[in-house]
Amino acid sequence: MVDKLLARLSPKPRTRPLPKTVVTQDLAGKTAATPIAELSFRPSAYGVCVHEDKLLVVRAEGQKWSLPGGAIEIYERPEDTVPREVKEETGLETEIHRLLFWDQSFFFHNVLNQAFNSIAFVFLCSPSTHPGKLKSKHLEIDGEELEYAAWLPLDKIKPELFSGTHAGFIQKLQKKGIL
Q: DSSP code of 162?
């Protein structure tokens, strides 16, 4: 009996070969074919922080908006990454409420000159410190200069205002009725 169950649960053999390349997208939306051998794995976590009908966002110099967040450190759980990243990028302390969804993407980080296979966890959070006190402009993180963090009114949120994968996050959040 157990053998039959294990046989049913065993993964099916792959019927098609692995691709030699994947399509990656940078923060500006530019796509390129990238050899899979050049990909690095990057688990990440982002916060959907809403307060008084406004969404907390960050923007790197010359780029579109993004949700605050970033790479999960080797010692972290995804839900611990968001408060750390939000504090680094905005100065705000946050409280995590729940996981909203996860997503996979292939992206190219121009500043690091590196392609990634990213698994992103997107969490609902709220500010636990005064939400009006955001870090000032021109904060440098991982070689990338953030122009500033801001609160965007929910009725002004459109996917095209957001960079690459984050535009997809916004679409999912709007489809689910969260934004």
A: B
Paired tokens of 123? 């969490």
- Are the CB atoms for 149 and 127 separated by under 8 Å? no
pLDDT tens, 126-145? 998 776 667 655 555 455 55
**How far is it, in rounded angstroms, from Cα 78 to Cα 125?**
13
Quote the pTM value.
Answer: 0.81
**Hey, is 81 helix, strand or coil?**
helix
Q: How many domains does the chain have?
A: 1
pLDDT at 14: 63
CB-based contact 144:111 (threshold 8 Å): yes
Distance CA 173, CA 177 (A): 6
- Read off the CATH number of the domain in which 11 is found: 3.90.79.10
User: Dihedral angle at the C-alpha atoms of 33, 65, 88, 75, nearest 10 degrees?
Assistant: -40
Q: Are 172 and 103 in contact (CB under 8 A)?
A: yes
